[in-house]
Amino acid sequence: MSRPERIARPPAGAEDSQAALPSLGLMALVVGLSVANPFYAQALLPAVERAFAVTAGTVLLGPMATQLGMALGFLFLLPLGDIRERRRLLVLLALGMALACTAVVLAPSFPVVLGSWFLLGVVALIPSLLPPFLTAFVPPAQHGRMLGIVLSGQFSGILLSRSVSGLAAELWGWRSIYALSAAAMLAVALLFRSRLPPLVPVEARSYGRLLASQLQLWRQHPRLRRSCLTQALLFGSFMALWSAVALHLAAPPWRFGPALIGSFGLVGLVSILAAPGIGRLVDRLGPDRIVAAGAACTALGVLLLGLWPSSLVGLAVGLMAVDLGVQGSFVANQARIYALDPAARSRMSGQLFLTAYLGAALCSAVIAMLWSGWQWPGTCGFALVLAAVALGLERATWWPFRRSG
User: Fold this and answer.
1) Residue 188 CB partners (closer than 8 Å, separation 6+)
2) Which of 5, 81, 124, 220 is the most buried (most CB within 10 A)?
3) 259/371 Cα distance (integer angstroms)
4) Which residues touch 214 (CB under 8 Å, ≥6 apart)?
5) Nearest to 237 by CA among 353, 380, 333, 368
């Protein structure tokens, strides 16, 4: 006989717990600090290559190791949020990132750095676990607003991580950003332990059955499958463009250096500032419409990038539209899947993030292999196809002749 399962509910006095939660702005900062950790290395690879006298091909194993670690974390650690006390799990993840960053700082050789980056990816789960944790303490009518604010930190961390790590490396050396991050994540662990209320386990089942249930969830919920596939396509488009824009800006007519290219990521501040408004629209209009609107906004942005490739204003406006569309869809997709089954929020969050990052990794790999032949126009065409397919997957929202029911 298996142990009885129980549906998650906030502990008694959840309303008081909601009032006692740290501010959503602070939670967004925590998400930004956490999500930036796996991306710091991207701007540091040349310095790491010189420090350990390894080849360019060898140093590129770093991002691969980090992404592999993240995939394993999404698959095997994140589901624990449905059967373990989540505050404790968040504290352990923050401590794990602090330890992994410390290992990078102290690493005597490149293989040790590689292993530390892998472990950093495995425990980089706070951006995936914190939103469903907070959802348990926020009324359903406010889920979109909460997710919009908290997830603004995710895109802030992704967009600004390269600039921050590059600046820190120039001032204090390439290891310095990991020393700073280790201290920051230790502070995050203390914040979680002292300020977050406990949340009892969502279900009572074995770990093996929990992992097996992920396939059942995928089969059971068409909206989960649609959310994962749509977000994989849109996030893949986003990462493909941001992977290629540095090469585009380094070429004629601009020939921008690393500092100017890194500062171009600041165009993402528009979508970050718009995130709370996007969340309120999710609450008012429903997540389906916002996902479809996000896909359309992404496609429009890619179209602008392709039509005006030699205009800095066109590039800025196009990237803003892409960022806005992808972030809006991410907020709405999370609200959509969290409403499906409160007992499985961590597992479904893991599937959403896993497919999104796999999509990003695959699309970035395609651009890396085909850039020499495609250049910027081909990249924009590829990204436009991805956004168009995502919009097609959401056709049930906007197609006027769809079947009822």
Assistant:
1) 30, 33, 34, 94, 126
2) 81
3) 22
4) 75, 79, 347, 350, 351
5) 380
Tokens 């949340």, residue? 199
How many angstroms separate the CA atoms of 8 and 87, rounded?
14
Closest CA to 246 of 260, 229, 232, 228: 260
Q: What is the 3-state secondary structure (H, E, C) of 6-66?
A: CCCCCCCCHHHHHHHCCCHHHHHHHHHHHHHHHHHHHHCHHHHHHHHCCCHHHHCHHHHHH
| Residue among 117, 155, 128 at smallest CA distance from 41 | 117
- Token readout for 157 is 């961390």
Task: Please compute the mean of the pLDDT values over residues 251-259 and round it to a whole number.
Answer: 73
Residue of 345, 20, 21 lying closest to 201 (CA atoms): 345
Is the confidence at residue 107, as pLDDT, over 70?
yes
CA dihedral sign of residues 195, 200, 202, 205:
positive
Domains and CATH numbers, the chain: 21-204 (1.20.1250.20), 214-396 (1.20.1250.20)
The b-or-e profile of 36-72 (16+ CB within 10 A means b, else e) is bbbbbbbbbbebbbebbebeeeebebbbebbbbbbbe
Q: Has residue 294 got a pLDDT over 90?
A: yes
Q: Identify the band that residue 221 occupies on the pLDDT scale cut at 50, 70 and 90.
A: very high
